[in-house]
Amino acid sequence: MASLKSLYDSKTDLGSALHTNFDVDYVVDYRFGTTGKAEAEAQFVKLVQALNDVGLATEVRNGDNSSVLIFVKIASDRHLKAEVYRSRVQDWLYGVRTAAPEKEMQQNLSSEPVTEAERLRLVYLLITKPRNEGGAGITPKSGDWKSVVSVFALHDHEFNKAWIKQLTSKYFLNAKDLSEIKDRFGEKIAFYFAFLQSYFLFLTFPAGFGFCSWILLGQFSPIYAIINGLWCVIFVEYWKKQETDLAVQWGVRGVSKIQHKRPEFQHEHVAQDPITGEEVKVYSPFKRLARQLLQVPFALVAALVLGSLIATCFGIEVFISEVYPGPFKSYLVFLPTVILTLAMPALLSVLTGFASRLTDLENYETTDSHEAAMVSKIFILNFITSYLPIFLTAFVYVPFGQIIVPHLDVFSLTVRPFAEDEKQLTAPKAGFQINPDRLKKQVIYFTVTAQIVNFLLELVLPYITQRFFRKYKAVKADRAMKKNGTASPTADDHPEESAFLIRVRNEAELVAYDVTTDFREMIVQFGYLSLFSVVWPMTAVSFLINNWIELRGDALKIALETQRPVPWRADSIGPWLDALGFLSWMGSLTTAALVYLFNGDGLGPDGTPWSIKAWGLLLTMFLSEHIHLGVQLGVRKALSKIDSPGLQKERAERWAVRKQYLEDSIGQEAADKAASGGITSGEKISSSTLETVFGSGSSANGTPEQRFWLRQRGQDDSIAVGREFIAKAATKAKGESKKEL
Amino acid sequence: MASLKSLYDSKTDLGSALHTNFDVDYVVDYRFGTTGKAEAEAQFVKLVQALNDVGLATEVRNGDNSSVLIFVKIASDRHLKAEVYRSRVQDWLYGVRTAAPEKEMQQNLSSEPVTEAERLRLVYLLITKPRNEGGAGITPKSGDWKSVVSVFALHDHEFNKAWIKQLTSKYFLNAKDLSEIKDRFGEKIAFYFAFLQSYFLFLTFPAGFGFCSWILLGQFSPIYAIINGLWCVIFVEYWKKQETDLAVQWGVRGVSKIQHKRPEFQHEHVAQDPITGEEVKVYSPFKRLARQLLQVPFALVAALVLGSLIATCFGIEVFISEVYPGPFKSYLVFLPTVILTLAMPALLSVLTGFASRLTDLENYETTDSHEAAMVSKIFILNFITSYLPIFLTAFVYVPFGQIIVPHLDVFSLTVRPFAEDEKQLTAPKAGFQINPDRLKKQVIYFTVTAQIVNFLLELVLPYITQRFFRKYKAVKADRAMKKNGTASPTADDHPEESAFLIRVRNEAELVAYDVTTDFREMIVQFGYLSLFSVVWPMTAVSFLINNWIELRGDALKIALETQRPVPWRADSIGPWLDALGFLSWMGSLTTAALVYLFNGDGLGPDGTPWSIKAWGLLLTMFLSEHIHLGVQLGVRKALSKIDSPGLQKERAERWAVRKQYLEDSIGQEAADKAASGGITSGEKISSSTLETVFGSGSSANGTPEQRFWLRQRGQDDSIAVGREFIAKAATKAKGESKKEL
């Protein structure tokens, strides 16, 4: 990756610009193109004042096409430190950290230095938090701040370069690499890379096994199905454990509890927290639950709309490829694909709009829960678009092909203009043979072709467009110069900064990075593996290769094609975990069904639905599912037995805190004793001690209780009395035995 | 319950004896009947010394037939207090209590008085804990202490009487009653009553609904099935929540973590706890897991053995009742019952033996996990014996009756001696009609008759035998007196104590109370409700009545028929929770199957297996199960939204502890600020502050960073510059627009 340098914009030599960010924390991109001069100025003044009011230093520079860039950094080191310490203490109050921060602020900060992610997070909060929580309350693109188009941090290109070099030079990320990512881009993104990493590692097994079984067992092998299912379970359970473990190691476990309020949240009434005494805004969870139920109709509608579109295109495709013999066939075959590529995005955007509307309606309190709800809805859409086509082929086309195909004439009109005679437009009423390879072809398409296409769209295309756009911009600027002497934005840049400012202006143009899309990609991929890989065991191999590139690609994307993301924290991969579980469970059903239907000639019982035993199919699925659930339980139990560094760390901290407290309170010696649970060897009891207890006095007077306990004075008495009893009993026994003689 | 008094042994007037326990904590029953005099004495001496060594006062009295009763109590109040405080601190160290105990021991004890349960528990531990942990290491019936037959606390008859009076006089136990039970008999037993209580309350609904649907819908109604299934889910989920809640309220949450080591536990090696530095004995969890897998063959064998027995008796019964027309039929019908009642207990005891052997093999570290493992095995046995007969009728006899019955001749030999001719011994080869009421009759038997029988066996029979036994003992004693003047054990009782001692001797004869058997009963009962109640909707009504009595009966049992139980702690009903979940899940399957098979004429599709659609059956079960799982998820989510007093309490304590700590460390004012997360309104930034940050100096020299941040001195500069930019841009825009004109 020596040519990495060349990747960076080389219009002007940015050598120096890449070395320093001039201590800038954030850049506020203020665009006043649409607003009038007076208003724009007023707004601008308000903005700068707001920033200064919360202790942020500002420098103003000119931006591209009628925008101003406000460079922000926290003014005094003292202020930053206070912020950091406060947030740490608060973490601890909310139970995120088990160990209390050092009582001395300075001491704490020196013992636990401030990471870049921490600093950037806090500064961002300072800018965006509502005023009553002590922030500047600047919410980009909304409310009063419509003209603030973005608040973004500047890339640390030195680091990025080194980072990508390093990534591309090694196969696996180790813990150090991950925590480095965490310290730069925050836990949320670090979690993505951690997940991608363990997923990649886990893939090696099904890749190897898949390859073997592809050679030895062929497709639809029950053995492969079982092993693959087992693998899915183990992977999901492992990740669950790994996740919490990382959260603990990174000191963010339970951080989701103190996520940031959504400004859009509408409360019904204000109640006082019985515990902290703080005022909390309340919205009835049951109302929310009721609204959440709207997801059901939403899912149904989505399934119906997308389903019918997919089904139609599917039908047309079948008709053209397998019925229509007329001219242009080779071109017409692509007709459905064209329809899909045109109609699908439109539909999806509409449905996504609905989804977000719905999520707003559910009115969540925190950004996290809001995101999670949105994700779950998006997942439904993805599920339909990604898997439905294969479902159709596997469970409709193959078994029922011979019934359906004859009725596909309805689609004949799509090709009518090209047909030479009617015959070409009528499906054969009988003797039609379904295409056995269709299913396999489809799976290969989704697991190889689609992945590659996706990668190109995701990484390469944006890069090219970006380059083009910048060239275009430069040319335009020059033309403007020549045409009328109006100064280009660069006109009054200080020479020392100009390179830097060009870089910043470029970064201002970039889009924001959204980690959820990358997550979605991986989860959907996992879905193919667990649901359909039995059709084509090589699936995992393709994924293994793809993900090696994917990981580096995403790194490149973050480094070059998006603004530097705000380093948010997170304690898990959130809702995606449920998605994983759901998919691996679903896999136990589909895989079983596929094996039952296609095992053997890989074509289903000669492709006719009648020869399929419905009860056999159901029974297979039923069993496979319950085995899956059973195994899951077992694996979970087994994993829970294993102690992990994270959990150990946590236990240790807990214990330390308590021990500490104990020592403060009842002194070292006592603490040890209490902790070890040792018991002072009880003092010998003599009648005297008892007397002290009861107040001395002859056994004559005093309460019956006292007399009872003073009958035998000390253990010697008791022993003597007991001896007596035993002896007596013994003699008595002897006596009786004598008599019996 | 005025006649309660009469329930107590009225041989001698124990009026006084019932009022006081002479401050006795425990009675050690030392029996030397078998051992020789010398050895017996030596052992006895050792025993008394061991007790005294750990600070326990002893009094010795004569016991029945060659036994000595050693009365034990903690010698000095100081010693007790130390024990209590130590255990509380330890609880806290292990995370059982969130709030730290008062730093001053006295203060703590006064603020949180010692409950009777707590005292008794600690004294019992003092007696039984191994010596190295500071106990006397006396383990009844095992090791050196074979001759110590029991260590039991004395009943507080005053309390018992009042308690039972109270129970019988009210319908529902409230929180106060439960915590009273907890303070007397420990959390473990309190949890049983709490469970029984909520179960009873929940039963009211299915009882009412069941009664209605019995009148309106008849049996096998899908509506009833759905509602009942829903109820099961809600109940189980509710209890899960309730359980943790109670645990928190009673301050025992997570107490299972510090359960007591099993003396029998064998460790592989000793490791040092990385955290506490204590030495811990380790046994590989994987070895254990491997051994746990032995449960599978065990379950299979049990199923096979018990199953075949039940099936045989079932076959005989069917043959006799529905084929055999000969004489004595009315008596012979009971033959299978007789066989069962004879063979079953023997088989069960054998299998239970196996189970306990297996559990020992699994070599658990703590008594709790040991118990849990045993329980799960016992549950398997119960499951088979309780439910298999109904399964046979529902899923074998009814659908396949017409195929099987003709082959039942094999059982003819059971009645051969009584038959008059061969014809009576041969089953009709065709045209046999199965008995439609059998299933219902069976369910009614198990849900009504069996419950009553069980109650009699459990409570009344023991009471009678006890009474008889005591009479017999008294008579024998008198005879012995007359025959040879040997003194009865009561001979040298001090008159003041004699009544008390008689009472103690009687209590020594009693069996120990085992709460698990009572739990088992309830769980099995719940099973009938969730699995088969669709056959006879009145089930719940019968259970409702039964359980009202059951609760009081169990109280009576504890009070009169068993020794006072050691008040152990627990933080849940343990393994029974899983059993509950399993049964309600199983219910979703069986109920669906029953409805599908028998809905309509309540006899299955004219009783012939061929007319049953296998796929229909499977599909019904499949759907019902998945609806069940879905609903479960929903209910869990909904319940998790509800805040409960227990969880609130916990949060409050957590918060308090941290706040406290904070105040200790960084002072009231700072604490408030940090807690409220408020931010000091940032100080205005002027160039001066910046200069102080960077060290003052003209912008000429210094690092580029410094110069960058000093270009605009303070916010006014920035604003001015920004204004300029905006103005320029505006004019430029105007200019362009002019040109375009």
TrEMBL record, chains A, B:
The Anoctamin transmembrane domain, residue ranges: 181-653
Pfam families assigned to the protein according to its UniProt record, in alphabetical order: Anoctamin, Anoctamin_N
Primary location: membrane
InterPro entries per the UniProt record, alphabetical: Anoctamin (IPR007632), Anoctamin_N_fung (IPR049456), Anoctamin_TM (IPR049452)
Location of the Anoctamin alpha-beta plait domain: 23-148
CC per GO annotation: cortical endoplasmic reticulum; membrane
Keyword annotations of the record: Membrane, Transmembrane, Transmembrane helix
Record field: transmembrane: 189-216, 222-239, 296-320, 332-358, 379-400, 443-464, 579-598
Keyword Transmembrane: yes
Single GO MF descriptor: chloride channel activity
Topology in membrane: Multi-pass membrane protein
Subcellular localization, as worded in the UniProt entry: Membrane
Protein name: Plasma membrane channel protein
Species of origin: Lachnellula suecica
